[in-house]
Amino acid sequence: MHLEIKNLHTYYGLVHMLKGVTLNVNEGEIISILGRNGAGKTTTIKSIMGLAPSSEGSVILKGEEITNFEPHEVAKKGISFVPASRGIFSTLTAYENLKIFHLKHSKWNIDDVFKLFPKLEKLKFRNGNSLSGGEQQMLAIGRSLVINPSVIMLDEPSQGLAPMIVEDVKEMLLKLKKEGMSIILVEQNLQTALDVADRVYILDQGEIVFEGKSQELSKNKKLTLKFLGVST
Ligand SMILES: Nc1ncnc2c1ncn2[C@@H]1O[C@H](COP(=O)(O)OP(=O)(O)OP(=O)(O)O)[C@@H](O)[C@H]1O
Ligand SMILES: [Mg+2]
After folding, report:
1. Most-buried pick from 57, 61, 122, 168 (CB within 10 A)?
2. Closest ligand to Cα 36
3. Distance (Å) of CA 222 to CA 3, 68, 101, 227
4. Whole-prediction pTM value?
5. pLDDT tens digit sequence for 126-141
6. Are 192 and 170 in contact (CB under 8 A)?
7. Ligand 1 — pocket residues by CB below 6 A?
8. How buried is 151 (Cβ within 10 angstroms: 0-12 exposed, 13-18 middle, 19+ buried)?
């Protein structure tokens, strides 16, 4: 198991948000976390990242316990996080946005990112604030690669993107998977998750209520209706 999350409990003040979340990701596997608004999806990845510290449970990467490490230490260990807000520096160019994060020892350099996203290379001298939502998403993913992760966690990368761009994002995730990347994809869109994920988890009120192969979930209309409000 590449990344193991065991029995994670996280509080916001007195609110018990994550109530024993357990999940895992293999090397070169894509898992998706689904669930309604407020289910605790973002909190789960923030807890893994050390941004929302947990009171109980553990995060184990390649056998090493990294629970509640500082976010920059978690990143150094090889987990990167692409937030829903994308976090692109608006007054820096696309190239500069990559350059400031690039670590010398990284397996991924800036040219590799451009190979993965040929469209991005054409935009490299454009400022962050002049990029479209889809272009910013590609840049945010590119930036998460140049820190040399073995796991990337994406918070709703397809949000607000046109269907054609969502296809680009899906294709790119599958390319990364082929290279052995472990991917945690938080999604609202059931179909997007089913299209790329090997396995899916459904979170509801801070608890995992389903875990299984994508094919299993796509056949279970009752479950998707109950917990996601949609049917496949
Ligand atoms: N920093 C915080 N302080 C207090 N409550 C918070 C904080 N962050 C999130 N919450 C609350 O915790 C709950 C879970 O939030 P979370 O962001 O994990 O949900 P989510 O599943 O990602 O939802 P969405 O699909 O809307 O992004 C929500 O009720 C939210 O209001
Ligand atoms: Mg969220």
Report:
1. 61
2. 1
3. 30, 36, 44, 9
4. 0.95
5. 999 999 988 999 999 9
6. yes
7. 12, 17, 35, 37-43, 188
8. buried
